[in-house]
Design brief:
The chain is mostly helical and 222 residues long. The chain has helices spanning 8-22, 26-33, 48-54, 57-80, 89-100, 113-123, 125-142, 149-165, 174-197, 204-221.
């Protein structure tokens, strides 16, 4: 840790760094490397689920790992410059905001579930790891049945996290649990809003036609 004195500048620096990390367009980059634009196929979101479905499971796992690392890194850096406890909720929220609105991709992004999981892992490693493991299993199990498996997997993981956090032997501050839960709810609402605003992306027939048009357009440009 650099200093025990936390000032407004400390929060600003942590938030800016976290936002920059969150804004790294991992899914978009992986998609481009594999010849697709994630904003033109599938859910039109830059996330692990879209890569999993449109490219491959292997690449989906890669995106998941890197997006989680963005969140963990934001927390590690924030700790290094002096933030602790509930103060870490600031860089967590900033990393999610960066993932939602990346300047590199014209302020488009993904749900931010995996980035939140990474940040949460950096704040409360053991408890979140257990929730993350169960949530991941749920997401993988539901990926063919639901439009947002990572979102539902995140919800399952958070239920486990909350349950474990309020055990008598837990040393996690209640305020941290409430804060992370609030950010999780914000992500869920963000996803629901996107889903309702772009219903056509989740209609199988319309999606197939639009994906075909996008592929033809990309072939003409290449």
């Amino acid at each position: 840790m650099m200093s025990t004195a936390v000032t407004l500048d400390t929060f600003l620096i942590a938030a800016i760094i976290a936002y920059a990390l969150g804004a790294i367009p991992v899914a978009y980059t992986i998609g481009r490397i594999n010849g697709i634009n994630v904003f033109q196929v599938g859910s039109r979101q830059a996330g692990a689920t879209n890569i999993w479905r449109q490219v491959s499971r292997k690449q989906g796992v890669v995106v998941t790992a890197i997006d989680a690392t963005k969140g963990v890194s934001a927390i590690f850096i924030a700790r290094y410059i002096g933030l602790e406890g509930t103060e870490l909720l600031v860089p967590t929220a900033a990393a999610i905001a960066g993932h939602w609105n990346s300047p590199i991709t014209k302020f488009r992004g993904g749900d931010g579930v995996v980035t939140l999981m990474g940040a949460s892992l950096g704040i409360a490693p053991i408890t979140v790891f257990l929730g993350l493991t169960i949530g991941t299993i749920a997401a993988v199990t539901m990926h063919k049945k639901l439009n947002h498996p990572s979102l539902w997997g995140g919800i399952v993981g958070f239920i486990v996290f909350i349950t474990l956090s309020f055990r008598p032997d837990s040393n996690i501050e209640p305020a941290i649990v409430y804060g992370l839960t609030g950010i999780g709810v914000a992500i869920m609402l963000h996803s629901i809003y996107f889903h309702k605003r772009h219903k056509e992306y989740f209609n199988p027939r319309e999606t197939q036609h639009k994906d075909l048009d996008a592929t033809i357009t990309q072939d003409r440009l290449s």
